[in-house]
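Quick entry between incubations.
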Amino acid sequence: MPAKGNRALRIWQFALFAALLAAWYVLTSPTLLPPLYFDDPNKAAFFFGEPLKVAGRIVDWFSSGFIYPHLWVTLVETALAFVIGTVLGLVMGLWLALSPTASALLDPYLKALNSMPRVILAPIFAMWFGLDMGSKVALGVTLVFFIVFFNVYQGVREVSHTVLANARMLGANERQLLRHVYVPSAMSWVFASLHNSVGLAFVGAVVGEYLGSSRGVGYLILQAEGTFDFNAVVAGIVVLTAFALLLDWMVTLAERRFLVWQPRGGETEKI
Amino acid sequence: MGSQLPALALEGVRVTFVSQDGGRYTAIRDTTLRVAPGEFVSVVGPTGCGKSTLLNVAAGLLQPSAGATSVFGEMLSGLNRKAGYLFQSEALMPWRTALQNVTAGLEFRGTDPAQAAVQAEEWLRRVGLGGFGARYPHQLSGGMRKRVALAQALILDPEIILMDEPFAALDIQTRHLMENELLELWSANRKSVVFITHDLEEAISLSDRVVVMSAGPESHPIGEFVIDLPRPRDVAEIRLTPRFIELHGLIWAAMKEEVLKSYARQRQ
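Done. Structure below.
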């Protein structure tokens, strides 16, 4: 995209954001406009929050240091769920893709587990692992695992027969084939699903906290909801969204670093 | 030459594929092919005549239903470790740079990485790709990828080189260039070559001997021609010599009927 068009797009995107904020502010302020829908001028603010107060709450959280332990817990849960889920998915995916017997045996179970709504496992995990981080990580792992697993499985299955035969002819033994052909091929599929799996690790952590915990951003939101503090609920959501975007950006950086060998649009230089 | 042990010998090979619904397809039968050390043999035949099957048997990638393969007198079981294989389709590892692709074979054998890299640089230069080592396959043109594949196979110094229509996807100029380079590399260090092609001109201009296969199924050799053209050859120029045209006429007469048969079968 040309830089000029890009800049115009950015300006429009920002303008839209500002307009939404302004509308939110004007429509919820108890004093600016006479109540349009509600009979009480404070009701709009009660149900939809007020942008300035939300911003104030976020600033307050960060300046007082109140949010850091909660944010830390949520991010650690996300990271653990992501790493454990990815490693398990990678190992299982490689194993099943390379062992037709195991794959045939386990296929119906994996299908059933995958189609089950995983969130209902949260109470079970809470019983097994307690209300601490363990149960949240477990929930995130079940979400991440299947994405990585299916991608690795597919990736190994789709390894080019010629590349494989060539590596064999060049003298690769089974272990070297795994390391130099199957894993790199599978990794490109894992990276393709990385945005999804990091996002779901985050979802697992927050939903787990929301369903029962004593720490974490999900817990903060639950508490705020319990006291009908809509501003705090929105503030929690904004913080979560910001960190989700940050994680996504980190994934993009990792992709650029590790997938240099893949052709990207506009970059396929041929001579 | 007759008393010498052949580098590669396929004796009475038959390959029958069984499909999942029980159907049988015999790709080749009663095929005997012997290649002397240092000899350049081309196998020509109409498309779908099982030429690649033959090569896969020679490489040990495919077990024949009947018959046997021997390499320098030893029966082949499993992969042919004395052979390098140049595939028709893309065989480079896309996640490795050109240099890393060339070093792959040495790496698998446990050669010291630094030493392998030095050798690979040398081979890349030899195939005309000095300075392209850091590029990934997708950043190279089709012809350059073939050169990398050539370097990848030849760096291991195989006694037998198996080539499956390696230049089929290239344009005619690039192809002539590659053929000349191949002849140059081969004459510098004579190895046995089995070269599969459907292009009769390519076969004649490169080889010491041309084997003609019948149309599939149940393909088998139907003729053998010794190419007595002088070396060194220039593949583009040798096509214009009277002896080349004479040989071409001779082999084409043997091949023509099979090509028509194969064509008729495909049209059904």
